[in-house]
Amino acid sequence: MKIERLSQDKIRIFLTFDDLLERGIQKEDMWREIPKVHELFSEMMDQAYSELGFDASGPLAVEVFALPAQGMVVIVTRGKMNSHEVERSSEDDDADDEIYEMEVTLEQSDVVMYSFRDFEDVISVCKQLQSSALTEDGRLYSYNGKYILALEPALIDSSRHNAVIALLAEYGEATSVTYAMLEEYGKVIMPEAAVREICNHFKF
């Protein structure tokens, strides 16, 4: 579980599928109101408080993004409490059970995204993807000092999907950035056929 602060009132939590399996939670469970998911959320909020000092009191907006092969991104935004809610929360401080007032939205992205620290790693993985005839597709972005390669699963043979993920994981790491955030804040370096273009421009 990886937690980072986006602003004073917003954090982003990246959960791998291993994080979920360790707690006996399936990806589909994140859409359900079950005790295990509530326990996971409480654990996330405790870790956010201990690591970042993020106090999850008051109303919270929770966005959950499912990413293929990487895991899930949870974005938590803390709302402002009015004076009545502040009074009520202080009265509830003695209660044993912590209750989070959550508004949850769920989205699922099929785009496979991996980030790379060095452009040499991008070149290496593209060479491997092309030479193994796995894909010549992809969009390349620059975001927060890293290169991010985004691939559409629809353009990858389903029988080779795991091989593509294995190669990407060998050179890069699964990113906790959502595709919507990448589209909005990232810089497009190659809008299409990134694997082929990189192989054409950088011959070994």
From TrEMBL:
One of its GO terms (molecular function) is protein-macromolecule adaptor activity. Belongs to the MecA family. Enables the recognition and targeting of unfolded and aggregated proteins to the ClpC protease or to other proteins involved in proteolysis. Homodimer. The N-terminal domain probably binds unfolded/aggregated proteins; the C-terminal domain interacts with ClpC. NCBIfam families: PRK02899.1. This is Adapter protein MecA. It comes from Paenibacillus prosopidis. The lineage of its organism: Bacteria, Bacillati, Bacillota, Bacilli, Bacillales.
